[in-house]
Amino acid sequence: MRKVGSGHKSEVFVRDDGSILKLFVPEFVALAPVEAGISQALERAGVAAPRVRELVTVDGRPGIVFGELRAGMTLSHAVRSRPWTILRAARDLAAVHAAVHRCVSGELPSQRERIEREIRGAGAVPQAARDAALALLASLPDGDSVCHNDVHMLNVIVDDQGCMLIDWVLATRGNPLSDVAAAILQLRFGERGKNPIAHVALELGRAAFWRAYRRAYLRGRPDGAEELARWELPMAVAFAGRREGRMQRQLLRRIDALASGGPHPLQEAKT
User: Which residues does 190 contact at the CB level (< 8 Å), separation at least 6?
Assistant: First the structure.
């Protein structure tokens, strides 16, 4: 068994038979049955997502063995190693995300209820901005599309057959444009580069990627641009409550601009 990746919730291994094992760290062991149940709901909805082959316990830690999940590199690694492919990669991600949104589910948790809970619990955000986000959320349409809700460049696996979204533990049923707004925020904001030159390159890459992703997604839904913009404030407030460090600071500045009638949503803002 060979370790191929890790995050703050789990570690990922390739087993001798080529299958992928996700082992949860002690603080997040309760997520194993949750993610397994969601994966089964996604399969019934027809989503191209990793399938649960079996639940296992390794050294006292619960884990999930996935089928139909290929060992590859993250989208972040792929773009950094081949920066000339960045625009194509953004378009590919938009196509994969749009395909997810064409699937519907009545089993997954409610996206709207989760967003509302997160906005109400976002203690780092001023109350006036939370109230504005809740009022805007109430005016936006619901839906029953499958939504990932945690799309970023470390949650996409890339190989010679294309790309696949992974880590579906936050999946819900809801409005696809909310999911797109959430993805843009995560693709746009994040930690600094290791040095000034690397930081400038990283920021330029982020800007190119999220804009190309947005254009490609809206090409298939040209009437969605205005609604997508309206989703940004609720999603930024929801994210700010569960992010920290530079990303939280960026989100708080963006929320302040949006709540005070600043730059048009999903347009340029200082980071």
Answer: 206, 246, 247
